[in-house]
Amino acid sequence: MAAAALARAGAPIPTVLDPATAAGAGQPIASACLPAFGSGLSYQLCSLGDVQARHTVVLLGDSHASMWTPAFVRAARRLGFRLVPLAKPGCALWALHENRPGWPCLSWWRGVLGVIARLRPSATIVSFLTDNYTVAQAGLAARLVARVMRAVPHPVLLADAPSDDWYVNNVPTPAQCMAAPGANLARCALHLTPAIRASLQRIQAMVVSHGYPAIPTLQWFCEGDLCPTVIGGIVTSEDGNHITPQYAQALGPRLANRLRPILAELWRAEARAR
């Protein structure tokens, strides 16, 4: 990966790059399509991509699902499916099965399962934040993902993109890092941690053992333990935790290539069941 080589060399931030694009691109999905952060439960059922298509695909999860919407819209138009995002920002895996003050995640989860049952999707793409589990909690992360996948029809895992607490602890956003004195691509890069690797490995082992289809994502962000925040002239990370809409959109064709054989098999099975 050329971007990783530049980051390892400590290359300067590209002069043609506007660092503000990491924070100023707007929402990857219309706000009306998602419940509000915190106590929100109401949302519109939105159809994206090829809205007239016979096949429906649900994108299910927290903000780590909704951040992929631009990629899935491009993939949906290429492959011919209607995309319905069902995501609740802030309702992480560990919070799905309880209602806490100001966070009715269980109510949202029960409601969304009913919506999915009515939609009867060809595939349910499952994507949640899993990088926030410690090495010791990697098995828990895998069990929580498995619990979600057991609950939905035709589950397909979209592995979580790498994230890093570096920005939380030092500089709030990549844009601010890139604008700081002495900034370079090495200083502003993300890094894989043992915790992230442990969670990804345990989750991958789980999907293999259950025979679930899965789409890896690490190859689109990292080489070794280094994850550049500029790839192909595009800022990849908004805040160290979510990918930018621009980079998500750029990944649409690659996502479509990964989805194509998975959906083809599911659509064949769907046709046989008629």
Overall description:
With 274 residues, this protein is of the alpha/beta class. It has a single domain (2-267), classed as SGNH hydrolase (Rossmann fold), CATH 3.40.50. It has ten helices and ten strands. The protein has helices at residues 2-8, 63-66, 69-79, 105-119, 138-151, 166-169, 174-179, 194-210, 245-250, 252-273; strands spanning 48-49, 56-61, 82-87, 123-127, 155-158, 190-191, 214-215, 226-227, 230-231, 234-235. The strands form three sheets. The protein has a six-stranded mixed beta sheet with strand order 1-3-2-4-5-7, with helices on both faces. It has a two-stranded antiparallel sheet with strand order 6-8. Strand 4 (123-127), helix 5 and strand 5 (155-158) form a beta-alpha-beta unit. The longest helix is centred in the last third of the chain and has 22 residues, at 252-273. The radius of gyration is 18 Å and the shape is globular. The termini are far apart. Mean pLDDT is 91; it is low at 18-26.
Using DSSP, what is the number of strands?
10
Secondary-structure element string = HEEHHEHEHEHHEHEEEEHH
What is the quaternary state of this protein? single chain
Count structural domains.
1
Return the CATH class. Alpha Beta
* Structural class based on helices, strands and sheet pairing: alpha/beta
Give the low-confidence spans: 18-26
Q: How would you write the strand order of the largest sheet?
A: 1-3-2-4-5-7
Helix content: 25-40%
Distance between the termini: 45 Å
| Annotated CATH topology | Rossmann fold
The overall pLDDT average reads: 91
Number of helices: 10
Largest sheet: 6 strands, mixed
The CATH architecture name reads 3-Layer(aba) Sandwich
> Tell me, what's the shape?
globular
How big a fraction of the residues is strand? 5-15%
Task: Give the radius of gyration.
Answer: 18 Å
CATH superfamily membership: SGNH hydrolase
